[in-house]
Design goal:
The chain is mostly helical. The protein has one domain. The chain has a two-stranded antiparallel ribbon with strand order 1-2. α2 runs antiparallel to α3, α3 runs antiparallel to α4 and α4 runs antiparallel to α5. The radius of gyration is 19 Å and the shape is elongated. Keywords: Membrane, Transmembrane, Transmembrane helix.
Length: about 160
């Protein structure tokens, strides 16, 4: 490389807006991040308090059908929530985050890591059949995700101001 890419980097990324205008209101990266992490926290706490306890009460003989129905119903919502979370997190990181934003992103990283490392594989194994021990591990992992999502929201609030 002859160095032109590095020299031209500011011009190449100048298209990336630090703010977006939407319905006559300015949306900044911290505001978008706050909206995304608040949506994620609402989703995650609802799953932790309502959805998973109901799923955990399903008896073994009805487990496979109930788990499959749960997976079909929640997957589109997970895709939207985590997609918004990824987009807002990337935007916030790209636009020069402050300390509160970095704290928020660290909590987001915990929630996403627990999802990828523990919750998603547990769901994959639970699809094959009811396993009370595995279900309890999923419930514990889910509580960690909920706490991380709430902490991310709390850290995002001062990042806006």
């Amino acid at each position: 490389m002859d160095g032109r890419f590095v020299k031209d980097w500011p011009r190449l990324v100048s298209w990336f807006p630090p703010t977006l205008w939407c319905a006559h209101a300015m949306i900044t990266a911290p505001v978008a991040l706050l909206a995304a992490v608040a949506a994620h926290a609402g989703f995650q706490v609802s799953v932790t308090v309502l959805v998973y306890p109901a799923l955990a009460r399903v008896p073994g003989e009805g487990w496979t059908v109930a788990h499959a129905a749960h997976s079909r119903a929640i997957t589109p919502l997970v895709a939207v929530v985590y997609g918004l979370l990824a987009a807002a997190s990337g935007w916030a990181l790209f636009t020069g985050p402050g300390a509160w934003t970095l704290g928020c992103l660290a909590a987001v990283a915990v929630a996403v890591s627990v999802t990828v490392v523990l919750a998603a594989p547990a769901h994959g194994r639970l699809a094959a059949g009811h396993d009370p021990a595995l279900l309890q591990r999923l419930l514990r992992a889910d509580r960690v995700r909920a706490v991380a999502a709430v902490l991310a929201t709390l850290a995002a609030i001062p990042a806006v101001w």
